Amino acid sequence: MNPVLSVENVTLRFGGLCAVSDFSLTLAKGELAGLIGPNGAGKTTVFNILSGVYQPQEGQVMAMGRSMLGLKPHQICAAGVARSFQNIRLFKSLSVMDNVKTAFHHEGAYSLASALWRRKDAVAGEARFEERANRILSTLELDLRRDEPAGSLPYGEQKKLEIARAVATGCRILLLDEPAAGMNAGESAWLMGCIQTIRREFDLSILLIEHDMKVVMGICERIHVMDHGVKIAEGTPAEIRKDERVIEAYLGTKRT
Amino acid sequence: MNTLLQLLLDGLSLGAIYALIALGYTLVYGILRLINFAHGDIFMVAAYAALFSALSSLAPADPGATRFAVTLLASMAAAALLGLAIERFCYRPLRGQPRINLLITAVGVSLLLENLSQVLFGANPRVFPELLQGGVAFENGQLKVGQIDVWVLLTAFGLMLALEAFVHRTRAGRAMRAVAHSHETAALVGVPVDKVIALTFAVGSALAAAAAVLYGVKYPQVSPFMGVMPGLKAFVAAVLGGIGNLRGAVLGALLLGLAESLVIGYGGATWKDALAFLILILILVLRPAGLLGKYEAEKV
Amino acid sequence: MNPNLKLILGVLIPALAVQALASLAPDSLSYFVSILALAGINAILAVSLNLVNGITGQFSLGHAGFMAVGAYTSACLSVYAFPGLPGQLAFVLAVLGGGLLAGLAGWLVGLPSLRLRGDYLAIVTLGFGEIIRVLILNMDFLGGARGFIGIPAETSPFWVMLCLAFCVLACVRLMASTHGRAWLAIREDEVAASAVGVDTTRYKVLAFALSAAAAGLAGGLFAHKQAFINPNSFDFMKSVDVVIMVVLGGMGSMSGSLLAAVALTLLPEALRPLAQLTGVDLRMVIYSLALIAMMLSRPAGIMGRKELWQLGWWTKR
Predict the structure, then answer these.
(1) Inter-chain contact A115–C200, Cβ cutoff 8 Å?
(2) B297 closest CA partner among A48, C251, C75
(3) Backbone dihedral region of B202: left (phi > 0), alpha (psi from -120 to 50 degrees) or beta?
(4) Strand, helix or coil at A90?
(5) Chain A contacts of C7, Cβ < 8 Å?
(6) Are C195 and A98 within 8 A, CB to CB?
(7) 3-state DSSP assignment of residue C260
(8) Which of A220, B128, C208, C277 has the highest CB neighbour count under 10 A?
(9) Hey, are the CB atoms on C184 and A51 less than 8 Å from each other?
(10) Confidence tier at A256 by pLDDT (50, 70, 90)
(11) DSSP codes joined into one string, C171-228
(12) In angstroms, what separates the C-alpha of C202 from chain A's closest C-alpha?
């Protein structure tokens, strides 16, 4: 079976520093996998490579059978790979609705002329955007806040909006960077259910970076472990929990 | 005379003056990622400060080394104070805000200095007082080196060497380099970031003042808008060399000075100002990092 | 109502109203009418610059350069290319031609420079403005330093208002569309905008080109109002004037830019008696102090990012 995402022997150097070294990972269609590791292991760097922010010096990244190397971030998004950011990057002064609608732009944009003359296709397009956005927002329980500026949302809701916006791009592969960061036990329990729901409803394959072990062990089918830019282990949650190299790298997890 | 050697000499001394201004730009950009639009106007204010000190009883009346040195020091001190004031009252309060706000404020300070000078000193150019004895230091068929050229080159390069020693051999210099690299990391290891930034402004402004005095010695005219073109050209020089890179600023400025001199010498005087911008656009399109610099994309 | 009809009426009615008022004004007020026309031209400049500086968040300092391209192109077209055509027709074609060429220039300048870091754009655009000025100075058939004379004085309050109303309405409609959201996203967070699929370079260049085209239209209107233009009307100070209008009005607010443009065109006239009294032109000193004070206390400007029609109880959902 062909993996939907395949990272092969990727190496990224910044001058003399090797941030990611010979890293490989595959994600099967519909899989929900985790990428874990101590702080500074290079996890977000891997995400940055996958989303086109950095170009690796060596290796290959294939998504849905196409090479992602050399593509700009917006092209990678159009190819079906979307991500959320660890330090929330919402469009703070835009409303929650508008944040989600920006994600529709690359697929559903009508022309400038249509916008200017307010032609039928523009009006229909906006109506479609409105309907799709409402659907996504209600799945993530953000619909009551649709018109509020994103910057005024409480932290937990902002993280949800990050996810909503990423999903709205119409991606097939979703990369979530620490979605549970800063959430309390109740919120992260809700998040676990939410991630599984969006996987099902939007037919996604999801790779997530997370430090909250309860979330990782709870929903990930497969876990990849990194330390110092290198992959040190891969397996099911049960296997990883017992893996000596992982335990050593962490010297005690933050929360279990 | 217009021989090639003469043009090169002129270009070299012009370039040396641009280098002093460019160093100020590059120092401030390196530490704050800010294009200090007001830098060229600090140059202009320093020129007026030099004019007034030379005319006052502070400086000896006869042209010579003492008169030159006193005027130079007075002007550098005045400029350093001005630079400190601008940083403290106009830029520091905006630290942490979007970069565009800082740029706009810098434009505002620049305009204020220019127009206030115009109101206070009048729009008409004034004659820069004679600081040094003219005359020829060396002459052969192809080249005439004036005493003034010698002074300009010696002072400019002397200051550049002093700066190099300061930045690379002193603790303060090391602190400046640390803050230029990363504010947070420097603060974590105990570097007083605010003081270092203030120092950088003071040093950069003092160098601009030296440039102003040398410029006044070479082209004895002072006017409220005299800093606009040299300032912009020095900025282009800094970008040409690689912004944030001190040696690059010097290299870029010397190249620009030489190019400008050649352009004037071969009949394109009206183009001399546009030359700098053409060079700028070429660099930014072909090699944004400049000759000696590294182009840093934004961190994600 | 058909949206096309709405647009046409929204543009024609203000234009006709303004022209009617201007025609009814007594001769003693003709200077004032002329100043208002200038205010309208400045408003077109400010609203268009706002698209780049305020809405897309890119700092351009060369707006006067595009105005110059429009002014000189339209002047050339009027005098050299269309002298045979009836006055108003030649004027309209000339101004449109100026706008078109300015838009093209905006596209050409924007394409290489908008890939760069934000602070570099400011200097590049400044440089572009300077290069244009020097180019014009050196072109004798454009009049060089002496200026271009003999431009037919066809600009009337009607045409200025028509152009302004169109620019404003076009902005409003574009901002309400997916393209407006794309521009705003770029301003808010360029990295995130890129990550959700917005081609940031393409959109920055688009904003730049559209804004340049509008500046070109303003230039054409200006040329046919003054009947005489020279490079000094389009120098760095003019670019700065427009930036001040956008900043004081509130970067991102169209109505803010409009109000500030009108206020800052009328203000020097109001300050004129003071200048005559003291013998000193304090306009620029006051402007620069205001700019610094604004940035230190209320960087959002007078309107912030809001529009005039967003304030008040009638906008509460």
Answers:
(1) no
(2) A48
(3) alpha
(4) coil
(5) 117-118
(6) no
(7) helix
(8) C208
(9) no
(10) low
(11) HHHHHTSHHHHHHHHHHH-HHHHHHTT--HHHHHHHHHHHHHHHHHHHHHHHHHHHSE
(12) 11
- How far is residue C119's CA from residue C106's CA, in Å, rounded to a whole number? 18
Provide the shortest C-alpha distance from residue B166 to chain C (in Å). 28
Phi/psi for C150 (5° steps) reads 80, 20
Mutate to test the interface with C, among B104, B117, B298 (most CBs of C within 10 A): B104
Average pLDDT, chain A: 91
ipTM of the complex: 0.91
Residue B104: list chain C partners with CB under 8 A: 59, 243, 247, 291, 295
Q: Which residues of B touch C116 (CB under 8 A)?
A: 284, 288
Q: How far is B85 from chain C (nearest CA, A)?
A: 14
**Per-state percent for chain A, helix, strand, coil, to nearest 5:** 45, 25, 35
Question: In whole angstroms, what is the distance from residue A80 CA to residue C115 CA?
Answer: 24
Question: Are the C-beta atoms of residues C95 and C224 closer than 8 Å to each other?
Answer: yes
B103·C59 Cβ contact <8 A = yes
Over residues C204-219, the pLDDT tens digits come to: 999 999 999 999 999 9
Dump pLDDT digits (tens) for C62-119.
999 999 999 999 999 998 888 788 878 889 999 999 999 999 999 998 888 887 767 7
Q: Give the whole-angstrom CA distance, residue B178 versus residue B119.
A: 41
Residues 6+ apart with CB under 8 A from C63: C45, C48, C49, C125, C129, C211, C212, C215, C238, C239, C242, C243
Asked if B104 and C291 come within 8 Å (Cβ–Cβ), the reply is: yes
The pLDDT tens digits of the residues spanning A237-247 come to: 999 988 888 88
- Give the three-class secondary structure for C125: helix
Q: Is C155 helix (H, G, I), strand (E, B) or coil?
A: coil
Confidence band for C142, pLDDT divided at 50, 70 and 90: confident
CB contact at 8 A, A73 and A52: yes
Extract the tokens encoding A59: 């290796």
Distance of CA C116 to the CA centre of its chain: 24
How many CB atoms are located within 10 Å of the residue C24 CB? 8
Is A72 an 8 Å CB contact of chain C?
A: yes
Short-list B54, B70, B47, B55, CA closest to B117: B47
Structure token pair of residue C19: 């022209």
In this structure, the dihedral spanned by the alpha carbons of residues A37, A42, A44 and A46, taken in order and rounded to 10 degrees, is -110
Q: Is the dihedral of CA C259, C265, C268, C273 positive or negative?
A: negative
User: Which is higher by pLDDT, A48 or C126?
Assistant: A48
User: Lowest-pLDDT range, A205-219, B116-130, B255-269, B282-296?
Assistant: B282-296
Q: Which of B34, B115, B284 is opposite residue C113, by nearest beta carbon?
A: B284
Q: Parallel, antiparallel, or unpaired for β A205-209 and A32-36?
A: parallel
Give per-residue pLDDT as tens, C18-71: 888 888 888 878 888 889 999 999 999 999 999 999 888 888 989 999 999 999
Secondary structure element (H or E) that encloses residue B164, with its range: helix B147-169
Evaluate the CA torsion angle C224, C230, C231, C233 in order and state its sign: negative
pLDDT of B267 strictly over 70? yes
